[in-house]
Amino acid sequence: MSSYEARFKVWRGDVQGGGLEDFEVEVNDGEVVLDIIHRLQATQAPDLAVRWNCKAGKCGSCSAEINGRPRLLCMTRMSVFTREETITVTPLRAFPVVRDLVTNVGFNYDKARQVPAFVPPADLGPGEYRMMQEDVDRSQEFRKCIECFLCQDTCHVVRDHEENKPAFAGPRFLMRVAELDMHPLDAASETGLDRKQTAQDEHGLGYCNITKCCTEVCPEGIKITDNALIPLKERAVDRKYDPLVWLGSKIMRRST
Amino acid sequence: MATGTEPHLNSGGVRTGTRAAISAPHLRTDRWWLAPAATAAGLLAFIVYSTWRAFANADYYAAPYVSPFYSPCLAENCEPMRAGPNWDLFGSWWGVSPAIIILIFPLGFRLTCYYYRKAYYRGFWMSPPACAVAEPHKKYSGETRFPLILQNIHRYFFYAAIPVAGILTYDTVLAFRGGTDENYEWGHMGLGTLVFLVNIVLIWAYTLSCHSCRHIVGGKLKHFSKHPVRYKAWQWIGKLNARHMLLAWASLVSVALADFYVYLVASGVFDDPRFF
Amino acid sequence: MSVVDRQEWDVVVVGAGGAGLRAAIEARERGARTAVICKSLFGKAHTVMAEGGIAAAMANANEHDNWQVHFRDTMRGGKFLNQWRMAELHAREAPDRVWELETWGALFDRTKDGRISQRNFGGHEYPRLAHVGDRTGLELIRTLQQKIVALQQEDKKETGDYESRLKVYQECTVTRILKASDSGSAAGGSRVSGVFAYDRETGRFFVLEAPSVVVATGGIGKSFKVTSNSWEYTGDGHALALLAGAPLLNMEFVQFHPTGMVWPPSVKGILVTESVRGDGGVLRNSEGKRFMFDYIPDVFKEKYAESEEEGDRWYEDPDNNRRPPELLPRDEVARAINSEVKAGRGSPHGGVFLDVSTRMPAEVIRRRLPSMYHQFKELADVDITAEAMEVGPTCHYVMGGIAVESDTAAARGVPGLYAAGEVAGGMHGSNRLGGNSLSDLLVFGRRAGWHAAEYAAARAFERPEVSDLEVDTAAAEALRPFSAEGPVGGEEDGRPPENPYTLHQELQQTMNDLVGIIRREGEMEQALEKLAELRVRARRAGVEGHRQFNPGWHLALDLRNMLLVSECVARAALERTESRGGHTREDHPTMDRKWRNINLLCRLADPTGGLAATDPERGQIDLVRETTDPVRPDLLALFDKEELVKYLAEEELYQ
Fold first, then answer.
1. If we measure between CA atoms, which residue out of C596, C594, C590 comes closest to residue C297?
2. Cβ C150–A117 below 8 Å, yes or no?
3. Strand, helix or coil at B27?
4. Which domain holds residue A125?
5. From CA C595, how far away is CA C603, in angstroms rounded?
6. Distance from CA of A35 to the nearest CA of B (A)
7. Which of A173, B250, C322, C361 is the most exposed place for a label (fewest CB within 10 A)?
8. Any signal peptide, and if so, which residues (chain A) (predicted)?
9. C321 DSSP 8-state letter
10. A176-219 tens-digit pLDDT
């Protein structure tokens, strides 16, 4: 076991203002950045606010920015940095700050509410659902999402443009729309809800310029852009910009 | 200890008043600018080269090779090619380089391609230059309005890209001819044939790995289990699609190389080494 | 001082894990206006850590499975100490609870014919666990979260407000359950009147008034040093119920999961799912031996393979072979690993080897155990497709908990108080089977929400009042850490305030070393002394800064709960002079049939519910022995006589 002193800069403050504070702190073999933040709490800054929970990359609570990159504190190993490097930790910069490393992620909960829920098929009762594995694979990938909101934080549509927040659901919730649209038994269309159309009209799919930062930061490795957002864009094209498909679906009634 | 409380800038984006007060537009310490810079340089180089070649209107045919920039050649001012892809649809009124007529299609296909969009939005428009690096624009509406809403027509360019790739395949087949002027026959091969073969494989791989293609082939289905053949095709295209970026660059380079090869041979820099 | 904000609800659910959310959904669907309070963000509950699956006898994978077999497995796993009626309800209702999740959008892994796939797990006779890869807990929590949002969307349509009938107060902590007497408003009454809570973000206090409170706060693992549990697991619900006058049941039974990570130190304790073994992973010691074959206890001799060959055949042909002993109930495996390490046959970092790399192709491992692959790769730099994992026991689950009525989930002795999930006791007896926790959450979460809603509806016109005095007392208690004691008589310079982080570390070390997986009388007495000392010092736990999102303050408040619960565990463990399930006494190494029908109930020694006791001599907890109801004859008839003889006392057998 070898340990060393690392230099940290941690943003401290609240909505009134704040700044980067310098710390020197012990680091041991195998530790992650969250361990170091905890050591700061226990030894130097007992009121340093940080959100965390499972410490195993499963709950998505400890999202922050390390050296300017959105990451989970618990999944960033200290071994990826050199011993000489000063490690800068700040709160997520797309959301209002609460205190220190804690931000107000209410934006995401508002957006979650705006996506209409799964519509169960009217003719099937509990226990009667039959779905093939190949039909649930796609939505299952999206359901791996741990809602760390790193994709929401990094997406320049809202990160760099506060004014777009009302119109844009963000990658996480556009992916939710895709998940439901690809769910083999979702009966939304039977109730007159066209998720392909509303993705564009109500959740701001058009704002996405597929620059893939959401995919780059996803700690679950979900291919958000290639598997959710682009397919959703193509589905929106079916509805809105492709007269052939549109005509076909009018004639056939159902495109399975 | 503290480096001092920073005043709130409230100048929008990451400096919006309610967010953590950090004046730097980003705190990345890695060489984040490398990828967009390399992308921009690569694309720029291709644009310069292809503009020169497209307007040159010369040195694009050296039997049996026709430059992919000039195929099919659709105007009267085309150089005559032996059983080559020149069909005079446009007649004599077309005065400039015949490459312009046909290049519209691959250009549109690549311009609206989901990968190239990422590349030039990041590399040229800096929207964003890299992840978590603030973009320089005050306003952003993405692809919600004209002109960028036109990106949604990508699939029509994909439809058009298939015959274009078909004709380039035809050109590649023609590249197996050779011999003397009198005895022009099948069953020959030169270094150019090899260049064309590599190019056409990459062109097809890039074309088929297209996101629109993946959607049309199977992605649009709700139940794969009811369409086993399309499901297989979708899976296969999905594997290609995962390498869409790589194929986009590889085919861009190969098409330029194929053209350049024809240029070198046609302009007499060297003779095509024949294998048999 | 009573300027604390108050809001009225019908049902308040404390905790937003699987049980809490299921309770909230049920209460709201039955018409009760329901509030949920949770310490973390909505959707981050510890339930996400559950990996293996939900046990439910749906018979999708093996047609012989039914609720009776599931009941039998559960009772065997719990060594017949289970509150049998709970085990019965659980086994009967679990399939419906799983199917219901599908109608809310859950996507489980499928069988070839499109039904829910079920996998093998320790202690379950048939493949029974509905699962989604190894992230079943996440699927469960997300489905319930999305169902809550769906209900809120309905309410929005009807009332214009998402939160008119169902509201989640996230990042809030409850510090007291409030009670009113039936006659008037004196403090410390008999029935529930609401909860006192603070908002972690702002530090602001508030009161939710409600006739029904459902406690669903999960477990106590954070009192132990090596644990798979997150910071939230500080035994809040256990302590709240205790302080409100409800007894805790069989707190000595703490499950140590056999396979937690042992290296690197910062992730020590993090869970390695049992599915690794269910899918073919084997345990080996440093000599390369599959040592579990040496540790099959007599009661399980007929059920488990005797040779490696037979064990290996079982994965393909379970009907004609017996399962490998790696799949024994968790307590057996944990003890076996402990013994191997003690005997010097452990791995370099003090665990044993869990190997899948030689058992399955790399690609299959990555598909079936994606998050394990990920976890080891990212956190330990170990590629589980190429090398063995190092694992060792980790504190995982508490079987003990609030004593409840089986059918209604009502806490005994406190009208209006309900408990469900890990915080409730009884269901799992002395040891919980893997997969039974998620089904437990759903079955009893629903029942708690249902009965809490009914209870509230019956009292719609006589809502209990919350007295100002009680609110003020609770507020004063919560503010204590900001004015931690300075000088004490007799000492010149006074004593500096205690650091809550230090206290917490000492508590964890104490419980881990002295009341851990193997227990001895002398050590537990020592532990009780140490706990008393810590309790006195915890009174002086002081914090810096202000109330806004102050983790030091939060921890200082949680210490009260951890100390209360730890004392319950230690006292009960000292009292029970046998080894059974999650309770192993080195000085009483065998199971004693006389203890089979004895429950140990912990109650507060000072029932006036005052602030935590300060006297180090006198503990805070009194223990009461209670004899359980005999198992219903038709349920007993599900077992062979020969098997029952091993568990039941003579007089129980011939009743």
1. C590
2. yes
3. coil
4. 106-252
5. 20
6. 21
7. C361
8. none
9. S
10. 999 999 999 999 999 999 999 999 999 999 999 999 999 999 99
CA–CA separation, C633 and C169 (whole Å): 45
Chain A residues within an 8 Å CB radius of C42: 109
Q: Which of B30, B32, B121, B140 to mutate to test the interface with A (most CBs of A within 10 A)?
A: B140
A85 touches chain C (CB under 8 A): no
Distance CA C632, CA C334 (A): 32
Give rounded-to-5 percent helix, strand, coil for chain B: 55, 5, 40
CB neighbours (10 Å) of residue B39? 18
Query: CB-based contact (8 Å) between C201 and chain A?
Result: yes
Structure tokens at C613: 């006791």
The pLDDT of residue A252 is 65
Query: Rounded distance, CA A22 to CA A9, Å?
Result: 5
A256 CB-near residues (< 8 Å, 6+ apart): B221, B222, B223, B226, B227
Span between the terminal Cα atoms of chain C, in Å: 60
Which domains, and CATH codes, for chain C?
A: 5-52+134-254+397-466 (3.50.50.60), 257-395 (3.90.700.10)
Vertex A247: Cα angle to A245 and A249 (nearest 5): 70
Q: How many CB atoms lie within 10 A of CB C321?
A: 16
pLDDT band at C265 (very low <50, low <70, confident <90, very high): confident
The bridge status of strand C34-38 relative to strand C11-14 is parallel
Token pair 């083999």: residue: A184
Statement to judge: residues A131 and A95 lie in one domain = no
Structural contact between residues C39 and C173, judged by C-beta atoms closer than 8 angstroms: yes
A85 lies within 8 A of chain B by CB: yes
Q: Looking at the structure, do residues A240 and A217 belong to the same domain, yes or no?
A: yes
| Dihedral Cα B25, B26, B31, B37, nearest 10 deg | -40
Please say which residue of A58, A79, A103 terminates a domain.
A103
Contacts of A210 in chain B (CB under 8 A): 114, 117-118, 121
Within 8 A by CB and 6+ apart from A82, the residues are none
Report how far residue C214's alpha carbon sits from residue C261's, in angstroms, rounded to the nearest whole number. Answer: 34
**Chains linked to A by 3 or more Cβ pairs within 8 Å:** B, C
Check if C138 contacts A (Cβ < 8 Å): yes
Which of A 160-199 lie inside 8 A of B, CB atoms? 160-164, 182, 184
What CATH number does residue A84 fall under? 3.10.20.30
pTM of the model: 0.93
Among B219, C437, C229, C263, which residue's Cα sits nearest to residue A30? C263
Question: What residues contact C89, with CB distance under 8 A and at least 6 apart?
Answer: C406, C407, C443, C444, C447
